[in-house]
Amino acid sequence: NMLPPAVKSMNYLNNILANIEATKAGAGEAIMLNAEGEVAEATGDNIFLVRDGAVSTPPPEAGILVGVTRKVVCGLCEGLGIELRERRIAVEELFQADEIFLTGTAAEVIAVTKVNGQVIGDGKAGPVTLQLLKAFREFIRQECGG
User: Fold this and answer.
1) Is 131 helix (H, G, I), strand (E, B) or coil?
2) What pTM value is reported for the model?
3) Sequence-ordered alpha helix ranges (H) in 1-121
4) CA distance 138 to 85
5) 13-143 topology per CATH
6) Active-site amino acid positions
7) Nearest-5° angle of CA 113, CA 117, CA 121?
8) Which of 8, 85, 98, 120 gets the highest tally of CB atoms within 10 A of its CB?
9) What's the longest Cα–Cα distance across the chain?
10) Which H/E stretch holds residue 140?
11) CA end-to-end span of the chain
């Protein structure tokens, strides 16, 4: 369980401890749960699931820090005609997802291929993740005047 991320301070102890735990387990990242035991976010990134072509992400009221990259990707979903659902996500849904990806300033849009050792989808970045990564990079290129 984590502290409310909206309490943005210089205290990232929650995130650091989760990352240490993930590293000890041989994982590259930790998925953090809120006080209700629902999926909230990763240690430095927002999380999205893809199931049957629709994208789901926890809403702000699930205790997430609403990232800038998350906002952009949500807008890209709308522009690309990809159904986006902001909703509470149970842990079990991670294992039923066709794709999972994270968004963040450094990560951009990055696929999650395993959760607790279970392969997600076919173990590679899926088509929706790749479509959003391409659209995100194009968005950045245009915004930066490139």
Assistant:
1) helix
2) 0.87
3) 13-24, 68-80, 91-94
4) 23
5) D-amino Acid Aminotransferase; Chain A, domain 2 (3.20.10)
6) 8
7) 35
8) 120
9) 44
10) helix 127-143
11) 42
